[in-house]
Design brief:
This protein is α+β, with helices and mostly antiparallel strands. It has helices at 74-81, 88-92, 109-134, 139-154, 156-179, 181-185, 193-213, and strands at 4-13, 20-27, 30-35, 38-44, 49-52, 58-62, 65-71.
Amino acid sequence: MVAMAVFFGEMQHLDHPTTMPAVVTIEKGVIRLASGRTQLGEWKLYQVVIRERDAESVTFRADDEELILKLKEHASFLAETEAYRRNEGRAARQRTHEAFRKEPEGPTLGEEIREDVTREVSSVVEEAKELFGMVKVGPPLWIGLAVFILGVIFLPSLIIGLVFLVGVVAIAVGAIAHSDSNIALKLPGDLTPTRLVAVGAILLAVGLLLLLIR
């Protein structure tokens, strides 16, 4: 198993207003940039310059070209590239030619599995926390909860079945979108594959809880 991080969003050239879909993958110190099915480039992370531009975007410089990347999982992308992010001053003092670079020893299979699982679990947990933080306390919430509780009381089998069904579908679609960038790019708004998986996990947990207390 190979630990790979995938990020979805938009990109544009620094000097041009047109935006286009972007898929960024990071795997074993290599960053790849694509748009749809078109591969735009592949670089070692130490060969590119990545800087945070604002709370939603970064600048990405490679091969004397500079782009603006606006990714749905902005914070996760910064965390993934933190060890490699650098400025031009420091880059000028480094020997970055391949001939001077000693390739790091690869992790063992067990380490790769732990790293991959830890990353995926952490990202899902962070998405779940963010989803709970988006819930606004007020009359609509209480009305919705009241309707849900009444449904559980009078139609328990139907409600629990629907919760499990939607949860399984959300996880399945999220997993498929995570492996197919074309599907991920079609997800509406700020919805990401990881967020779909988080929604599915929450619903399955709710369904299990309802089964236990039924």
